[in-house]
Amino acid sequence: MGAGHTHADSGHSHDHGSGHAHAPKNFGRAFLISIVLNTAFVAVEATYGWLSGSMALIADAGHNLSDVLALLLAWAASIAARRPASGRFTYGLKSSTILAALANAGLLLAAIGAILYETLHRLAEPAAVQGGTMAIVAGIGILVNAGTAAMFMRGQHDINIRGAFLHMAADALVSLGVVVAGLLIIWTGAAWIDPAVSLVIVAVIAAGTWGLLRDSVAMSMLAVPKGISETQVRGYLAGLPGVASVHDLHIWPMSTTETALTAHLVMPGGHPGDALLQEIAEELRHHHRIGHATVQIERDASCASCGSPD
Q1: pTM
Q2: Any idea what DSSP says for residue 240?
Q3: Which residue of 23, 86, 247, 293 has the smallest Cβ count within 10 Å?
Q4: What is the longest distance spanned by two Cα atoms in the chain?
């Protein structure tokens, strides 16, 4: 990690390390393979869903299509996040990953509405369904979705990658449900089973969407990222030698993987020197997952009025 830099005349410490504990990893190959596989499967599933009269297959195809769009957004955001900072975008385009997660949640909500509308219509007027076709096509879907999910399993700390993983893992479970529904239709001939399974698919999508929507909205509102305690960070800073008080403490997500902090430390004894500032940067990085820290040192507690109140 890069060392902190101190400007003694201004009393500021800036840590802009070259590496960060949760720097975005390159999942480009995983995205490319996932998009190609899922696009091909959407075409197959929608075609056979139409031919077999299965609303469950069509619903799953619609969901998978939204996942392809979600993967494209997530991939584009991950590429943008690695672009260097500029005079206008001084943090680079890191926050695009947050926007992508929020857009993905919106896509899923749209998919839920479309699937639910058609499913309710099918419940009112059940149609004959080819259970065997359902089971075979959905079985292929289990392999495609489970394999895709496995490629994103190692990126769970990134909400953008976690969103892709959850989409694919949920799809694998949904496909399993469609296989079971197809077998039940073969055994019982009950046409209502197909739209009933569609409702279950909608419930699964909705459950995953709520978590993604909640987290992405919170990050877009600059909430303290999950897994980081503002109280613990404040306690650590307030307990440092020579610190009388802490004010204007702000912690916010720069992206889905990187976090920034600014804080004013009132130290009546004066500037502590670079060694302590570097120690603060290392502690915040390794124990609080905050890779970009800016600390301002003040000798007079009355300086708290210079900044915005907490």
Answers
A1: 0.69
A2: S
A3: 86
A4: 83
Strand 12-16 to strand 292-298: parallel, antiparallel, or no bridges (unpaired)? antiparallel
**DSSP-derived pairing of the beta strands 292-298 and 259-266:** parallel
d(CA 194, CA 135): 11
End-to-end CA distance of the chain: 30
On whether the CB atoms of residues 171 and 64 are closer than 8 A, the answer is yes
- Of 162, 130, 169, nearest to 148 (Cα)? 169
Which residues 6+ apart lie within 8 Å of 85 measured at CB?
A: 91, 92
pLDDT value at position 190? 81
| Helical ranges in 127-273 per DSSP H | 131-151, 159-188, 193-220, 230-238
Q: Please, which residues have CB within 8 angstroms of residue 21's CB and are 6 or more apart in sequence?
A: 285, 286, 289, 291
**pLDDT digits 0-9 by tens, 86-126:** 888 888 888 888 888 888 788 778 777 877 877 787 777 76
pLDDT at site 279: 92
**DSSP code string of 260-274:** EEEEEEE-TT----H
The CA-atom distances, in angstroms, between 291 and each of 23, 78, 256, 264, 273 are 9, 18, 13, 17, 20
User: Mapped to the 3 state alphabet, what secondary structure does 10-50 carry?
Assistant: CCEEEEECCCCCCCCCCCHHHHHHHHHHHHHHHHHHHHHHH
Question: Distance between CA atoms of 56 and 205, rounded to whole angstroms?
Answer: 13
CA–CA dist 154, 139 (Å, integer): 25
3-state secondary structure of 296: strand
Residue 181 vs residues 133, 171, 176, 178, 192: alpha-carbon distances, Å: 11, 15, 9, 5, 10
Q: Determine which helix (DSSP H) or strand (DSSP E) holds 251, and give its type and residue range.
A: strand 245-253
Residue bearing tokens 């980081």: 228
Taking phi over 0 as left and psi of -120 to 50 as alpha, with beta for the rest, 241 belongs to beta
